[in-house]
Amino acid sequence: MHTRICDTFGIDLPIFAFSHCRDVVAAVSRAGGLGVLGALAFSPEQLDIELNWIDEHVDGKPYGVDVVMPASYAGAGELDPDRMADQLQSMIPEQHRHWLDKVLTEYGVPPLTAEDDRPEGLLGWVHEKGREQVEIALAHPISLLANALGPPPKDVVDLAHAHDLQVAALCGSVQQAERQVNQGVDVVVAQGTEAGGHTGDVASIVLWPEVVDAVAPAPVLAAGGIGSGRQIAAALALGCDGVWTGSIWLTTAESDMSPLVVDKLLHASSRDTVRSRSWTGKPARMLRTDWTEIWERDDSPGTLPMPLQYMLISEAQRRIAKYQVKELTTMPVGQIVGRMQKVRPVKDVIFDLVEEYVEATERLNRLVNV
Ligand SMILES: Cc1cc2nc3c(=O)[nH]c(=O)nc-3n(C[C@H](O)[C@H](O)[C@H](O)COP(=O)(O)O)c2cc1C
User: Fold this and answer.
1) Domain residue limits at 163
2) Which CATH number goes with the domain that contains 223?
3) Could you tell me if the CB of 245 is within 6 A of ligand 1?
4) Taking 80 as the threshold, does the pLDDT of residue 161 lie above it?
């Protein structure tokens, strides 16, 4: 399974693993792949703590950091850095707040108490926040800076290159891939609609070779629907240099998902996800539950643009998680969730991916040699 991307990063396996959980990131890198920590949910201080932990637990193996600096969002370029949170909060209509409160009352979800942390709800997808995270990340020995939702701004690409880092970005179409390469992105992650999280509408098996051909000779990682070595073999057969995975790590032993979420993931089929704007305001694939359904009801005021939607829902999500409200519990995850049926350690998942890949390629070789 050795491809040129293995030489670029000094890794044994061209398997990249996105996770918000530091234990998963370190375990994947130690097992020969490349773990990438999603920075989105962390404050700059917390991100530094997570990265210090990874530095101590990764045994000197390479790892990466992923930030979210979207190509477009509400308030872009108009926000005062000192009053950003208030400015954005004032853009959320009262009608939306009332409706969401009414729905939570219908489901019997109690409010948070005085002792509970109130989520800020702003998170990293405002460029000002993303830049702070990039600064923290660059102070650690990372090998890769990745960005979701479009190419990172040109100055961020240049800064990463000045630190000798490879820059990756996720795309869901050929046009986005071309834009990324023109902006200096080194590694294109072509993510099919099957993927968990923000995703476009083109399927992996169509998108991967389209992107490979459009950006050649730039290396392409295949994302969206990878859960077995057979799927890795398919991605490499279609010209990709490796794979970028997300969903399959949610149900590993190292993952920090709550038992309720893990149980829901283990019991979901590949038809139990939906692309919904109800999480962040941009289409993201997640478990279809009452949470995604309520936003489609006749009385729904509709979703808000990024970053307002997550600011609107963050306290509701905290309440749903605290009181373990099963019907409303959801999680970004891809269609591969249908094959995630057991909790296993990261190294076992990697071992199986490699073993299945070898079996798949041997089977194909036998077909060539008949
Ligand atoms: C729970 C979850 C959260 C995600 N959050 C991000 C994110 O913050 N940044 C990002 O670049 N990709 C994010 N993704 C997408 C992954 O990086 C990856 O592209 C995707 O999971 C690949 O498809 P798969 O889910 O079929 O493996 C997320 C995916 C999941 C499942």
Assistant:
1) 4-368
2) 3.20.20.70
3) yes
4) yes
